[in-house]
């Protein structure tokens, strides 16, 4: 009498099917597990990115986008300088793919700091699995102010702070403009400074090897010393890097806004 297994094998053959060896079957199962794992990881990354997009604060209230391809040095009178700055930015992104550190972009208004920062974020989203978040310093100041008497605004601010602490790459754009114009000695409010300090401290976490895990990119029309007059020295030390390799100076470029 034939066993059930033999009957099943004959039925598969009669239908034109192919019998798999145990090794082949295990390989196929492993491949199915791998594909399922990759799909789950991709879905989780997409979900996280949607959360950080939701909690981003844009100057206009709507997401802005840019890319390295669209940042054109020929729009500047000094094409050579603009080309150098673009190369510095792309080289910096390549380093950030493998390590985490703070970045400072400084220059006058309209010279392309924010556009270049958006290009860096675009590259992260296209070529890495890192998460990104954009926060306008001016919009954040308004959110902190509305937190006083509005429970809904308070809940939103708490959500924004949590995301700013967790995201891999955080941009704080136009830092200092929420306090005053360049050269001003006016200081930021204590509540705003405390908010930034909580974020700065939380983002300085390191892994088991003592390496930074999060990157914070600051853009500002103000110099580091001017920002030091607006904010606590400890905060500036944590947020605004002074390492030359991590600073991009847009000094010498002209305002190209229409």
From TrEMBL:
CDD domains linked: AAA (cd00009)
InterPro entries given in the database record: AAA+_ATPase, IstB_ATP-bd, P-loop_NTPase
SUPFAM superfamilies in alphabetical order: P-loop containing nucleoside triphosphate hydrolases
Location of the AAA+ ATPase domain: 99-245
Domain of life per record: Bacteria
Name recorded for this polypeptide: AAA family ATPase
């Amino acid at each position: 009498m034939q066993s059930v297994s033999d009957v099943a094998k004959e039925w598969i053959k009669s239908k034109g099917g192919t019998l798999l060896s145990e090794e082949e079957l295990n390989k196929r199962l492993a491949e199915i597990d791998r594909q399922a794992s990759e799909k789950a990881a991709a879905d989780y990354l997409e979900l996280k990115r949607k959360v950080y997009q939701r909690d981003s604060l844009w100057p206009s209230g709507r997401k802005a986008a840019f890319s390295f391809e669209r940042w054109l040095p020929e729009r500047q009178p000094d094409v050579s300088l603009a080309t150098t700055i673009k190369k510095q930015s792309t080289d910096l992104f390549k380093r950030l793919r493998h390590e985490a550190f703070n970045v400072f972009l400084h220059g006058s208004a309209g010279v392309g700091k924010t556009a270049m920062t958006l290009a860096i974020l675009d590259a992260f989203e296209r070529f890495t699995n890192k998460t990104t978040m954009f926060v306008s310093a001016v919009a954040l100041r308004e959110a902190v102010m509305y937190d006083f008497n509005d429970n809904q605004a308070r809940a939103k601010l708490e959500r924004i702070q949590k995301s700013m602490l967790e995201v891999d790459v955080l941009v704080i754009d136009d830092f200092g403009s929420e306090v005053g114009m360049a050269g001003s000695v006016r200081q930021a409010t204590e509540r705003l400074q405390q908010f930034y300090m909580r974020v700065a401290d939380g983002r300085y976490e390191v892994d088991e090897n003592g390496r930074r895990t999060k990157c914070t990119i600051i853009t500002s029309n103000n110099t580091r010393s001017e920002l030091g007059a607006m904010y606590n020295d400890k905060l500036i030390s944590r947020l605004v890097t002074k390492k030359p390799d991590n600073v991009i100076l847009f000094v010498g470029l002209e305002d190209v806004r229409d």
